[in-house]
Amino acid sequence: MPIQMTRRAVIAVTTAAALLSSFAAPALAQDKVKLRLSTPASETDQRSVALAEVFAPAVAEFIDYEPHYNASLVAQGSELEAIASGDLEMSIASAQELATFFPEFSIFTAGYVLKDAAHQVAVFNDPLMDPFKQKVEDELGVKLLTVMYLGRRQLNLRFSQEEKNVQTPADLAGVNLRMPGTDAWQFLGQALGANPTPMAFAEIYTALSTGSVDGQDNPLPTDRDAKFYEVTKQIALTSHLVDQNYIAFSKEIWDGMTPEQQATLQKALDDAAESGRQQQLALEEELVQFFKDQGLDVYEPDLEAFRTHVQEQYLSSDISDSWPEGTLEKINALGG
C-alpha cells in the first residue's frame, strides 16, 4: 500500500524529531499540562460533551484541557500524524483511520464483528487487544486509552417497507446505498448486498430527496440530527456496524506524568466514555419511536441472515488476510 508506506515514512521522521526535542522539555509531573483535543465532531456531539463534562473536571488539577471541534485545529484524518510529530496531544480516532496505518485494524471495521456496546468494551479491555495497542504505541507514539461508542449503524431507505421489505442481503440487490468513500466503507456496503455509492456526508440529504441514491446508513441519532427522516420512508434495524472511536493520546505526554496522574487520567477517560455510551444507548432507544411518529416504517430484519452473509464476504476476501490468526474467534467468544 503506497499511501501507507508514505505515511509511515513521514511519521518515522516526525516522531524522531519529537523525541529529540523532548529531552529539553520540563518534567510534566511538576507542571499543568496543556492537553489539546482535535476532533471533527461538533461541540454538542455526545463524545465531546462527555469529555467536557466528565473528563475535564476530573483532571483539572493537573490538566489544562483545550478542545478544538469541527476539525478546526487539525484536518480530519491527520490527527494521528499530528500526535506522532508532537503537534497534538489527543484525538478521537476511528478504527478505519488506524487501518490505513495498520491493516489488521480492519477487523474492527468489518460488519457484525462487534455485536453491541458492551461487546465493544469487552474486546477493548481484553488481552487480545494488547498487540494492537502496542503496535500503535511503538510505531506512532500513540496510546489508545479507552473506547467510545458512536452507535449502531442502520439502513435508511427512500422506499416504504411495502415497496422494499429488507429481510436479507438479497433484498438490497440494486439498491444504491450511500457509504463513506474509503475502501473499507465501500466493501461493507457491498457485503450488505447493496451497490455502495461514495458520497460526502453533506451531500446525502439532497441525494436522497432527488433519488440520486436510494438510501444511506448511519446511527439513529445522526439520522435525526441530519433530518434524513424528511426524505426517507423506512429504517431497517440491521445494526451492521457497532461504530466506535478510540481516545488516542500522546505517549510522550503520558510518560511525563506521575503514576497517580496516569491513573486519574485513565479513570476520567473511562468514566467519560461510559457516560457518553449510556447517553447514546438511551437516545437510540428513544429514537425508534420518534421515527415511527414521523411516519417511517421501523423494523428488524433477519439479523442472522445478514450476519452470516456479511462475515462470509469478509472471510472470503483479501481484507481478512491481515487479521491475526484466531482473533475473530476470540472476539466472537467475548460476544456471548
TrEMBL record:
Per its UniProt record, what Pfam families does this chain match? Answer: DctP (PF03480)
Keyword terms? Periplasm, Signal
Task: State the InterPro entries in the record.
Answer: DctP_fam, TAT_signal, TRAP_DctP_sf
User: In the record, which residues are listed under signal peptide?
Assistant: 1-29
Highest rank taxon of the organism: Bacteria
Supply the Gene3D superfamilies for this chain. Answer: Bacterial extracellular solute-binding protein, family 7 (3.40.190.170)
Report any one BP term from Gene Ontology: transmembrane transport
Q: What are the GO cellular component annotations?
A: periplasmic space
Where does the protein end up? Periplasm
Q: What is this protein called?
A: C4-dicarboxylate ABC transporter
Species, as recorded: Paracoccus aurantiacus
